[in-house]
Amino acid sequence: MYLIGLTGGIASGKSTVARRLYQHGAVVIDADELARKVVQPGTPVLAKIAEEFGEGVLHADGSLDRGALAAVVFHDPEALARLNAITHPAVRELALRCIAEAGAADPDAIVVYDVPLLAEGGTADSFDFVIVTDAPRKTQLARLVDERGLDPVQAAARIDAQIDRESRNALADAVIDTDGRMAATMSQVDALWPTIVAARDAKRSA
Does the record's keyword annotation contain Cytoplasm (predicted)? Predict the structure, then answer.
């Protein structure tokens, strides 16, 4: 198995790059999807979140009110740290299980773990290869406002809650510039794929 860490700032095109890697044959594991699974109603993680932040972060049906929780944590670094301490270990455990299952199903698999907070988590060394999607702050802001409906203050807060571009890019084996058209982003992934396959093959034969 060849394990790739795919990361980047919010609204920097990770999903587009992950989708293209999948089209080339990679197995893609999405940390955001795993994060949604670990906070389903009835899970220990959701119970801990409600205990820590109050019943106000839940909908009437007992599911997580993401908007209410975001309003609590995104302007409060200490609260965000408390939330991360609850959710990150559960997501990491589920991710490791999914990665192991992918490797067991196909020892030659190229597995991509799409994880927004790879740099913040200090786990770059656990991957064979790291890809970073990169876009300027103004592009991230525009995407969050125009495509996701956030107001500019919310958008800026979400960007600022993440590590800076320079620190993230410094971890990369490859940086994909996502500031242009989608076709340009995909072309960069297409050009990178043979390098990934060759690296996988070299690891396999080592």
Answer: yes
